[in-house]
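Backbones bend. Shown next:

***
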Amino acid sequence: MASNIFTFGGVFLLVAVASAFDIWSVDHIPNAKKSNDQVIRVRDINVPAGTALDFQGFDGKTIEFHGRVTFGYKEWEGHLIIIKGKNMNIKGMPGHLIDGEGHRWWDKCGGNCGKKKPFMMYTQLENSYVDGLRIKNTPAWCFAINQCSNVHYSNIDIDNRDGHTKGGHNTDGFDVHKSRNIRIYNSKVNNQDDCLAINSGWDIVFENNVCEGGHGIAVAVGGYDVNEAKNILIKNCKVIKNNIGIRVKTLLNGKGIVDGVTFDNVELKDISETGIVIIGNYLNSGPREKPTGGIPIKNLNIRNVRGNVLHNGTNVLVNVAPGSPSGWIWDSNVWGGKPNKNCLGVPNTIADPCAK
């Protein structure tokens, strides 16, 4: 622990300052891990191709990002940044930028074909904070939030807008899997896929966020080792110029449960395809066949979801196995697109939301 001496009114004050270890190269990481410094400063690093900027074994430490972080080019399926640990504080400092330079991988087909593309950032954290990161042009998916518990992600800016014209695809903002008590708030995502995709998890809050250009906010359950999403709150968000506004989609022939998903005060603007989507026949290649009820959607609460769909789009789509959903509450005002006369499985306890 270092200290600084200041004077105030002629009195000397001794102020303790946390010691810091500066990293300018990935070669410095082993020594940083061994040090007693509480703050690790990442400064203007270029990470070699095919190598992760790997922060494992830094429990209790603060990781600060300064300057510009870049990565060498390689086709691979790893992660450009890995952060695992407990009681960590990950901070983006003023003027920093984590630049994936994703145009080198972009080929309009993301993870479905073409070049192998790495994830931007893998986090597996407990009792930790991730705040203030600025991330630009990810090769494909940005945040993998995997097996995390009690973690806050705040004031994060994911800027993949260049991908709209340069072939970006599958540039998800936040992907959540097998995680509990997660809060994502006060953040922005401009991308070409889901702003948020919750594949499984419990007690998750997505609040005060802006999603632009992508595929909307999704609870997408099925096809994984854990197919359960419970107590999910999406609140006070804006979805702008996405193809979908909000959706709950469960895998065709999947098994699991979706229980307690709430969309509260979500504003939609200029949605091109469908404002609200609730389906039980999802496949990666697109929904098809009759929906199956092996992943029932229970206690869905649509509260003050409002805004416009472009005139060639559809306001609301519900296509779930009749009898499988229960406990739905619905209050939406989506306009501008076409009403849908082919909705299936709407519980008889609510008015048909597709008719408007």
